[in-house]
Amino acid sequence: MINEKFPIRATSHIINLLGDELIGSDSLAIFELVKNSYDADATKVTIYFNDLDTPNRNIVIEDNGSGMTPNIIQNVWLTIGTDYKKKKAKVSPIFHRSSLGNKGVGRLAVHRLADEITLESQARGEIFGSRLNINWKDLINSEEFIEDLSVVVEDGVADLFESGHGTRIILTGLKTKNWTKAILKDLAQKIMNIKNPFEDIDSFEIEIKCSEEEKQGWIDEAKNPLWVLDRSLYSFRFLIEPSPDSNNVIFKWLYKFNPINLSSNGSIKPREIRKIENFFLLKPISTKDNSHNILTNQDIEKIGPISGVFHVFNQNGKIIDHAFGAGKRVAVKSFIKDNCGVKIFRDNIRVYNYGEPSDDWLGLELAKVQRAGDHFSKKVTIGAVFLDLLQSENCLKEKTNREGFTDNDTYRLFVSIVQEVFSFFEHEASKDRDLIEAFTNDTPLVKKIGLSDTIKELDLKLSKKGLSSEFQPLLRKVEKDYNEMRDLMLNSGMNGLNLSLVFHEVEREIRFINLSLDEADYDRSILKKRIKSLFHLIENFAPVVKQSRKIKTVASKLIERALEIHNSRFNYHNIIVSSPILTKESEDFELNGPGNLLLSSLSNIIDNAIYWVDVQSEITSSPHYHKAIYISSDVKSFDGPAIIIADNGTGFNLDADSLVQPYRTLKPGGMGLGLYFVNLVMETIGGKLLFPSMEDCDIPSAYTGAIIALIFPKN
């Protein structure tokens, strides 16, 4: 047996593949070249679009950075896949910038744009520069294998740059022939967005010039006037960073409500809130050891500090006129449309494609479609999230094609964090949104209750796609419950509960499912999830409108049954439960009402208490803290006998009015329907839901968290 070694070789054609596949668009190609300028400590990079209406059209990217020596051109720039930047210091020598390009493929970006390239570069401190020319087609056809390709580099070139150093790339034979207004404006917009438009970076300027006056006007339209952002109706800035004093992160935020020229209305006033929280809530994070709800220093150590800003606009004509002046509606709406979305920046330089028109990485539109309430649309949101490259790059890795981060655990955690921050912003803005809706009279009319023809349309589409057997039984159940709830509500005199929103939501969800089926690449699992969400929606409201057998019982029996339901959870979470009414230390009382509704209400409140005492336990991290819930009676403090539920959790962060509004909750992933449901039930029986202080009722002083009173009518 004879063993021989054979080399692995690459054909010249691989340059075509790398240029086209690794770089997804013209804007990303220019982006890669601008990143190289940034890494080279340039203070200015200029992109020239020349003679675009002629056969001599060309693009020039020129910077005043440190430039390249002949040796670097030969051994780095002409070496595909080099790890030169990784081997160098992590920061640049002059401005201490973190290196943005480290894959060694950025130079292939030019192949995406043009057939021919001329590179001119002069290193800082050198008298002469270098020049090389590449005709990609001729080069690739000159040799079969990539290792046999060669390029002539002209050294000793004088007077290349006025500053004495820099790099110039001249692209000719542009692959885009017809430079329309839409193409050029879109490209210019993306180039301008390479640099963080929310922060003023004096040390790095991007300028775009065009030799044709008309096209220069198109480019100028794409620039980002900060004055538009400053006039947004709602804004939110935040910073999440490790705490030096505890294991919980610090959450700093600033909310602004900016109703320009609307204060004369009286009820509409500017509002600004700035706070520093010693914790940040998140959907349960699972680790090898446990699950927790509080974001810790260890959770974000692979991401680093996360900061950001969100601007949200109201496109109602009256609001725009007040904020920007008459005659600006078209321009402002155009600006919002061109710039909407939430972008990501590392060291103030864009990470594509987050925040592009087709991208909704935070799922803002999905949340808006799924349910009503206080959700801001992506279409009216302009925002950015900022990361530190040195602290995030090891675990938040950009894909080789530069189109986003690799989908791993760290990235998914990062997305969850930003989603919850945005949700927090929405909740803080909810009251102000109510004022604006009243001012503009834009509150939508209640739709006529009924399924219309949407469910029939859905049946037909499911049949055509061969999905009837799997999904139609689910839809039949939804339709049956829906119609039952509709009929009972209309015939029982319960219209005053304002439950028509559930029917609106069901119809909206069915329309959304219909739209999903119209997509050629629909996802079966997502479709199933959407249909199941209809069940959850109806389940939250069905007990209110369905017939519930009225019972005559005593408060102690209702409390005893509710505690039995949650007994296993009390044990699992190590919660101390105190109920003096069950030990006959407090006075019992009779009550009348729909038994299942009252039990569901009490159970819902207990469920919330369990969650928030768990959160408080994580915040304190003290061995002396013991989770506790109190449930008893109070027949003296209110205008009717009451069941009191109290805990030693975090307490309420929303005011009483907001607590009983649908879709307003600070619980991550929560629907915000729990206390809304409880309030509806108590109103139905002629009672009240109140949130008294400790001074208003007789409870032990240890229960410093939330206090809820279910007040029943006197028999």
For the structure shown, list the relevant keywords.
single chain; 715 residues; alpha+beta; Heat Shock Protein 90; 4 domains; seven-stranded mixed β-sheet; 38% helix; elongated
Describe what this molecule looks like in 3D.
By secondary structure, the protein is of the alpha+beta class. It has four domains: 14-223, Histidine kinase-like ATPase, C-terminal domain (Heat Shock Protein 90), CATH 3.30.565.10; 227-436, no CATH class; 454-545, no CATH class; 550-711, Histidine kinase-like ATPase, C-terminal domain (Heat Shock Protein 90), CATH 3.30.565. It has 23 helices and 23 strands. Helix 16 packs parallel to helix 18 (500-518).
Instruction: Give the strand order, joined by hyphens, for the main sheet.
Output: 5-4-3-6-2-1-7
Tell me the Rg in angstroms. 31 Å
Which secondary-structure class do the elements indicate?
alpha+beta
Number of domains: 4
N-C termini distance: 101 Å
Number of helices: 23
| Shape estimate | elongated
Low-confidence stretches: 442-450, 489-500
Helix % is 25-40%
* Fraction of residues in β-strands: 15-25%
| Total E-strand runs | 23
**Might you state the CATH topology name of the largest domain?**
Heat Shock Protein 90
Mean pLDDT, nearest integer?
Answer: 80
Tell me which CATH architecture of the largest domain applies here. 2-Layer Sandwich
Largest sheet: 7 strands, mixed
> What is the CATH domain class of the largest domain?
Alpha Beta
So, the CATH homologous superfamily of the largest domain?
Histidine kinase-like ATPase, C-terminal domain
